[in-house]
Specification:
The protein has 455 residues and is α/β, with parallel strands linked by helices. The chain is built from 16 helices and 8 strands. An 8-stranded parallel β-barrel has the order 1-2-3-4-5-6-7-8.
């Protein structure tokens, strides 16, 4: 049986692999120091919108680009973090012939000359069919072409170098024919990235890892798409704790690299909890780790206020729970109000709204230690404050005995502005609550039944 390394998973790290503006030079250097201090040992450089990685992959590093890459390599070396440099040629490469192969080998060789010993070949998010006529004539399937490319690239690596590949089929059950064909045709020393059952997987299970290993002949290295929030997820703020990962996943995987958000400061919160899991997967406690991470990143001065805010932006692929305390407050209000106890319902909801408003005031207009974090989260914090004001107004109307009469006119503007903000705060709970209040055919208390499992 595989024995757990003393420090958890063999590979513990993060990847800059999101769509959007690549990180800045200073962000990356700070991030390397941050993850190293928390026991992570790997940084994968693979920003989707860095032209020299993807669109212009054939071009060599020169000038400022070369200086930044050299500085990043040196920073990783100083902090004991292995840099994995990735290139993503799949949008344009011709697999047959030697021209593009030599260009790819030259690119990786130039980076190896800077001290990089671990390279990544990314074949994700590309057309599922061969594009060049010469390729279609030479290869029967995309898997054949990819196996050919992987073998030839691996043969050309510098002595002492290693290769990790992200296949085109990088999520699913782990028994896909493409994966079987790739695994059988390439050197067993080549690693394969895998995201799990989905691109953004709710769970990573030991059984699935073993299925992947049987199919490909090697344990997966998980490219975990959390806390990334690019493309269709950009309205969510993924700062909740790491969840849904099997405590024994280390038995059948090489490790995990976590894909961050374009929001570098905010990503650190999830990264800190991921580092805790990777270091001690069987002893990991998500909520305790999260509280430490919030204090660690937000700072002591705004920890309490930021924790209140963060509790209301939990929504992600890892969590079906939206805003537990506010959801409970809404349920209690609806129950009491429907039974004619409007004053008690109003008092409790007012107390909760005041708590939220106090946190928003501190974060938006108070003195904060990590101002960069607040600026990244500002659209969500402003919507959080607006939602708190909506709850306060509902409570005022209930206390005055005019909620049913005036709800539509008084509450609708809040609901409209929250939707216009186009960020996810309070999950579905607040939107459904306010929607029901503004529906002239629905009494406030009936939202418990109408909300189903969410309310």
């Amino acid at each position: 049986m595989k024995t757990a390394p003393p420090s958890g998973f063999e590979i513990r790290g993060v990847i800059e692999g999101f769509y959007g503006n690549p990180g800045t030079r200073l962000h990356r250097l700070e991030l390397i120091e941050f993850i190293a201090a928390r026991g992570m040992n790997t940084f994968v450089y693979a920003p989707k919108d860095d032209p020299l990685v993807r669109r212009a992959w054939r071009e060599p590093y020169r000038g400022d680009d070369l200086d930044r890459l050299t500085e990043l390599i040196d920073c990783c070396r100083r902090h004991g973090v292995e840099l994995v440099y990735c290139v993503s040629p799949g949008l344009s490469i011709q697999y047959s012939g030697d021209g593009d192969l030599e260009a790819l080998a030259a690119k990786l060789s130039s980076v190896a000359a800077l001290g990089v010993r671990r390279c990544g070949l990314l074949l994700d998010d590309i057309p599922p069919e061969l594009q060049h006529g010469a390729d279609r004539a030479m290869f029967g399937t995309l898997a054949e072409a990819h196996a050919h490319l992987i073998r030839r690239v691996f043969e050309r690596l510098e002595d002492g170098s290693s290769l990790v590949v992200c296949p085109t089929v990088y999520w699913g059950r782990g028994d896909e024919p493409y994966l079987a064909a790739i695994g059988e045709a390439i050197d067993p020393r080549v690693e394969l990235f895998w995201t799990g059952r989905a691109i953004c997987a709710a769970t990573l299970d030991l059984a699935d890892a073993r299925t992947f290993a049987r199919t490909t002949g090697r344990d997966p290295t998980y490219w975990d798409n959390y806390p990334v929030n690019d493309v269709a997820m950009s309205f969510e703020l993924h700062i909740g704790p790491y969840r849904g990962r099997d405590p024994r996943l280390w038995e059948a995987s090489r490790g995990v690299i976590a894909n961050g958000m374009e929001l570098f400061e905010a990503s650190k919160i999830a990264f800190a909890t991921i580092a805790d899991y990777l270091r001690d997967p069987e002893g990991y406690e998500p909520e305790a780790s999260w509280q430490r991470a919030l204090r660690d990143v937000a700072g002591d001065s705004e920890f309490e206020a930021f924790a209140i805010f963060a509790d209301n932006v939990r929504s992600s692929c890892l969590s079906a729970e939206d805003a537990p305390r506010v959801t409970h407050a809404i349920e209690a209000f609806a129950f009491a109000f429907d039974r004619g106890d409007g004053m008690a319902a109003a008092a409790d909801l007012t107390a909760e709204a005041d708590r939220l408003l106090g946190a928003a005031e501190q974060l938006l207009r108070g003195s904060v230690g990590n101002s960069a974090l607040i600026e990244e989260c500002r659209p969500w914090i402003e919507a959080f404050e607006l939602g708190a004001r909506a709850l306060a107004r509902v409570a005022d109307l209930a206390a005055a005995g005019c909620l049913e009469r005036d709800a539509r006119a008084e509450v609708m503007p809040y609901l409209a502005r929250l939707r216009q903000a186009r960020v996810r705060v309070f999950g579905d709970a607040l939107d459904m609550f306010l929607s029901d209040l503004t529906d002239t055919h629905v009494r406030p208390g009936r939202m418990i039944a109408l909300g189903g499992g969410t309310l």
